[in-house]
Amino acid sequence: MTSLPSHPAPPRAGGDSVGELLSVVTSDVQTLFRQEVELAKAEVRQEATKAGKAAGMYGGAGFGGYMVLLFLSLAAVLGLANVMDGGWAALIVAAVWAVIAAVLYQRGRTRMRAVEPKPERTVETMKENAEWARHPTR
Questions:
Q1: 27 and 61 in contact (C-beta within 8 Å)?
Q2: Which of 82, 87, 91, 93 is deepest in the core (most CB within 10 A)?
Q3: How would you write 88-124 as a 3-class SS string?
Q4: ∠ CA(64), CA(69), CA(70), 5° rounding?
Q5: Cα 69 from Cα 74, distance rounded (Å)
Q6: What percentage of the chain carries pLDDT values higher than 70?
Q7: Contacts 24+ apart (CB under 8 A), 77-86
Q8: Could you please report the per-residue DSSP string of 35-82?
Q9: Cα(64)–Cα(93) distance, rounded to whole angstroms?
Q10: pLDDT tens string 4-24
């Protein structure tokens, strides 16, 4: 992140024109906004990196869980096939998985709707900066 630009000389009492002072203020405000945008980008990158690592771990756990459920399902089909036709046993196990999938889909959709991907703190400070730029004496 860059720092605010240093000015060649401090303002002189009564020596700088209003235009020069406005130019300095405008330059500082532009620099501030650029820094806020860079801060937002850094914040989003940092959160995306954490989310990516967590997603990778979830992916590995999901694959392991998938393998467990696959073999448990196979065992259930083979166990039910001892008391009924193998086709019906496979259909019953598939129906159970269909219900589980529907419930998980519904819960996932509900939670996904609650996700807020924008950087809240940076948006708030940008609003404050814009308000200050419009009315710097308040």
A1: no
A2: 93
A3: HHHHHHHHHHHHHHHHHHHHHHHHHCCCCCCCHHHHH
A4: 95
A5: 8
A6: 87
A7: none
A8: HHHHHHHHHHHHHHHHHHHHHHHHHHHHHHHHHHHHHHHHHHHHHHHT
A9: 20
A10: 455 555 555 556 788 888 888
